[in-house]
Amino acid sequence: MFRLNILRLALLGFLLTVPDAVHAAIFYPTHFTLGNGLEVIVVPNHVAPVVTQMVWYKVGASDEVGKKRGIAHYLEHLMFRGTPSIPDGEFSKIIASQGGTENAFTSYDYTAYFETVAADRLPMIMQMEADRMHNLVIAPDTAKPELSVVLNERQQRTDNNPIGRFVEKVRHTLLPHHPYGLPLIGFRHQIESLTAADAQAFYNAHYAPNNAVVVISGDVTPDDVMRLAASIYGAVPRRDVEARRALPPATLPKSGSFSMVDAGIEQPQVELHIVVPSYHTQKQQEAYAYEVLNAILDEGESGLLYRRLVRGKGLASGVASSYDPDARGDADLTIAISPAPEKKVAQVEKALRDTLNDLAQKGLDDKAVNDAKARLKREAIFARDSLMMPGYVFGSALATGHSVAAVEAWPQRIEAVTTEQVNDALRDMLKNPHTLVAELLPDPHASQAAREAAQPVLSQDRGVR
Amino acid sequence: MMKRFLTVALILAAFAVPSLARATTIQEVTSPKGIHAWLVEDHKLPIIDISFAFRGGVEQDPVDKQGLCSLATTLLTEGAGNYDAVAYQQILSEKSIGIGFEAGRDAITGHAKFLSADQAKAFELLRLALAKPRFDQADITRMRTEFIGAIREQFGSPDWQGRNALLKEVFAGHPYSMRRLGSEKSLNAITRDDIKGFAAEHLARSNLVVAVAGDIKPDDLAAMLDQVFGALPAEAKLMPVTDAPWPATPTHVVVTREGTQTGLLFAWRGPKRSDPDWYALEVANYVIGGGGFASRLMHEVREKRGLTYGIDTHLSAMEHAGMIAGDAAIDNNKVAESWRVAHETIRDFYDNGITQAEMTAAKDYLTGAMPMAMTSTDKAASAMLGLQLEHLGPHFFDDYPGIIHALTLEQINQAIRRWYDPDAISFSMVGKPEGIADATYKPMVRE
Question: What's the mean per-residue pLDDT of chain A?
Fold first, then answer.
């Protein structure tokens, strides 16, 4: 009967999702809120008989207070350590025994858990997430070995990894006195002080249906999901959670630049960090102009920066840009450049600045802007070819104060960006006082032994958790 | 408490029955010129994905010109026909057409993904890359410099050092012991004629395998096959490669490196894909180390004792050899304890086999995970390419659950006795592991 239902409604779903050529959206979701405040988003995708569920809590490392830094991430680990009905270790085993995959991750503004299983197992994974949404019990005897795992993770990602050490210092310098400036995982001494009781308190204060978003994408229909969500998640009681505090305003770094010499580095890297508005902090849609600008600066081998700095002058071996506007606070636009061997770092840095100033002065032309907009809009189509993407996009948007409608209007808002707005964004960016130039340099005096000691042991990530 | 547990157990029971009769349909398409492809036709999204391969990869490199296959492969998208490297990359970017090649051990793989509206341009660029690569001297020099940079970075990577040390021992004298990127010396020995010759001899129709998924009809695909691949020579000239031997006694190498952690890589001789034990070993591997948080090694070493962030094992089937391998990163002063725990876990697995419950869990996982291979256009194409490279048929996905469910506990435990001898494990460790006496100590490779 279940299958019949799916077939019948699949037809309906298909009609609903025929894209309107003029106002193309992205995912054409169904969005509803249960009586207990839980928001649910459904994106049917019938490419395979598979479903992905992502559960997002509107809490992350930037919600931590006092000395308990790293508690959001530690709690994420402990969410797999058991409820009365699904004991320690069973969560992963159950998912695996069904052929599924699961994991979780923590960020500054949100914490997310996800599973991918055969579509007819959706009720099972809903039941499991609903269970740990309100029944988690953190026992000291399981919390303790998990703390070693977290310390190991910090060792592998940060202490034992020159890039990790650099990223930590960049954040700390770029955003002093701001939660975004602290390491997400916590400093070692802070992690060591965390207890099972701390994690339970953080869970009680933040985990509730009224502080969560569930995104379901895959071989399902909105009607079926609505029915299942109402009966399974609807049974989780609403609970008062701590109101989210607004982030403090960002303050300027003490100095506009720093160099970090690290024995573990062979290839120097220069990064230009500029703190610019996010979707949440923008005043006049300028985040969309920054997205177009970022797409121009990040075009890769045929991009303006690559052509001038890598191919033209041979000063760099690579250049890239990144910008993620999904944040409660301001976002960090980063332009990174790798000086070519034998080239002076200062010379490369100056050439990058000169090139940006030159682009700002002459202005980017309509072709550059229109090409970038076309690429971004194609990306929106490619995004539909993935079960995880709807979860990422809606989850991070809703957890940072953005809306479903704004996500769906994204292609139109990108289309509406004018060449003038992109040039304004570029000029604003270059005179923005909240800027940091960070250099990561090899240590020419380090011995071979010291160089080896400073490098990571395993480069590959072994699951986010 | 008990009641809730029962509820979950009941839900599991209700949904544990595999009901995935609906495997994706794979069509076989043959072009007028006789070029064959597998197709999963799906018009819901305006996206086409082509995955293809030419059998014969890095193994084909001459010993004194290691890196040739990788260099030639990389240069295919650095200018072709009338487009120089800049123009070629520019047009890919403008149309968001992704075209890329990669040199694998046994095959050169290629991949193209684009919106169906841009297919004419994508087909033309793909045809040019294969049939008319320019190999301009300036681009050869630029990519060679990039490779030399990458090789220097490899020397700093404990992962690479460990793999290189182990493969050099277990595949001594066989092409599988060669380095994918070669060395600075071997790269400098490669001429433009070598590169042109390599492409001319290895990119042909006789060793070509194609898989396509997405918004394309069979007739249009047939025309595309001739347009893109039709101009290639009919026969590839491949150097014959023999099956790789495996040493009778295990190898234990420690590559000395400063730092607080040790990278561990351990391996047994493993089955080739065609081995009758293959499927039994898929189940066995899941239980010992392939099942992530559900595996015995992860449970003993990470979950119970917090000795590492992760430890896992996998089956690695190559065209001319097989390997069962595992890895982990461990603090130097915990290596001896971790290895002892891992070793005891493997010995128990070898002596006593797995339980009925573990077998059931592994079978549920393997059959349940199968549809995950096809959850996007590129995954579907890549899964079909993998099947063809492994000499499997288009009905594999239909047959697989039956094959797995038919395995008996006895078959699996007998296979474990044949392959997982705890005294036959070779390993390499990279770091300063404490308390590992029984090993050959070597310095890191630096040229």
Answer: 89
* Rounded (5°) CA angle A238-A244-A249: 170
| pLDDT value at A440 more than 70 | yes
Give me the numbers of helices (H) and strands (E) for chain B, helices first please: 16, 12
**Two tokens at A16?**
């609903």
With respect to residue A463, please indicate whether it lies within any of the assigned structural domains: no
> Secondary structure of chain B: what % helix, strand, coil (to 5)?
50, 20, 30
A339 with A436, same domain? Answer: yes
Nearest to A385 among B5, B47, B153 (CB): B47
Over the range A357-376, which residues count as b (16 or more CB within 10 Å of their CB) and which as e?
eebbeeebeeebbebbbbbb
Segment B287-301 shows an average pLDDT of 90
If one compares A391 and A18, the residue with the highest pLDDT of the two is: A391
Cβ atoms of B270 and B317 closer than 8 Å: yes
- Cβ–Cβ under 8 Å, residues B438 and B426: no
Q: Which amino acid is at B312?
A: D
Does a structural domain hold residue A277? yes
Question: Which chain A residues touch B97 with a CB distance below 8 Å?
Answer: none
Query: Where do we find the tokens 């492809």?
Result: B37
For residues A70 and A190, the answer to whether their CB atoms sit within 8 Å is: yes
At B135, give phi and psi (nearest 5°). 50, 45
* Dist. CA B341–CA B48, nearest whole Å: 48
pLDDT band, residue B259 (cuts 50/70/90): confident
- The pLDDT tens digits for A223-279 are 999 999 999 999 999 999 999 999 998 899 998 999 999 988 888 899 999 999 999
User: In this complex, which of B152, B364, B371 lies closest to A48 when CB atoms are compared?
Assistant: B371
Contacts for B370 with CB less than 8 Å, ≥ 6 apart: A99, B20, B397, B400, B401
Residue B263 is nearest to which of A131, A385, A457, comparing CB atoms?
A457
ipTM: 0.79
Higher pLDDT, B155 or B109: B109
CB neighbours of residue A246 within 10 Å = 8
Q: Which pairing describes strands A435-442 and A269-276: parallel, antiparallel, or unpaired?
A: antiparallel
Percent helix / strand / coil, chain A, rounded to 5: 50, 15, 35
Radius of gyration of chain B (CA): 24
Mutation site, A135, A381, A382, interface B, largest B CB count within 10 A: A382
**Are A120 and B12 a contacting pair at CB < 8 A?**
no
CATH 3.30.830.10 in chain B, residue ranges? 27-229, 252-442
Decide which of 3.40.50.800, 1.10.10.10, 3.40.50.1950, 3.30.830.10 is the CATH code for B252-442.
3.30.830.10
Same domain, A330 and A417: yes
User: Could you tell me whether strands B36-41 and B208-214 are parallel, antiparallel, or unpaired per DSSP bridges?
Assistant: parallel
For testing contact with chain A, the best of B7, B8, B97, B382 (most A CBs within 10 A): B8
Mean pLDDT of B291-303: 88
- Look at residues A235, A312, A301, A270 and name the one whose alpha carbon lies nearest to residue A437: A270
Q: Could you give the CA distance from residue A238 to residue A155 in angstroms, rounded to a whole number? A: 38
| A430/A289 same-domain check | yes
Q: Model-level pTM?
A: 0.85
Is residue A159 over pLDDT 90?
no
Say if CB A229 and CB A417 are below 8 A apart: no
What range does the domain containing A277 cover? Answer: 257-453
CATH number of B27-229: 3.30.830.10
Average of per-residue pLDDT across A140-146:
92
